[in-house]
Amino acid sequence: MEIKRQKPVVAAYHYDQPNPEQTIETKLQVGFTPLNTEDPNYPKENSIIRCILDFRLVFEEYIISGRVSQINHVINRKITNQTDVTEEEVSEIVAPLFDIVKRLTYEVTEIATDEPGLTLNFQTEA
Predict the structure, then answer these.
(1) Domains of the chain: which residue ranges?
(2) Cβ contacts of residue 45 below 8 Å, gap of 6+?
(3) Whole-number Å distance between alpha carbons of 46 and 57
(4) pLDDT in tens, 69-112
(5) pTM of the predicted model, to two decimals?
């Protein structure tokens, strides 16, 4: 699948101290929305997809949360809903968003804790 990506957007990123009186769980939510274009010159065989990653990662010492997104142009492929792509293709489309969260988390935790940063691994065990 050929994908041309626009610049990713970090809409929110939080490093918070946990509140011991609250029970908060880790949550990862990936979604995407096919977008339409008003441009009559945009190739009809291509698709525009907006990907969003909402995340909340709970650790004993801190909670990392936020939202990142990116607009993707899928070349020579019509995608109108999420059922038009396989799980593997969804992973390929959203991979840069996970990379951004990894990079941000490493840097922020390194600065905040004055220790080596936290290295995240979003790979699922098979």
Answers:
(1) 3-113
(2) 76, 77, 78
(3) 35
(4) 999 999 999 998 888 899 899 889 999 999 999 999 999 999 99
(5) 0.89
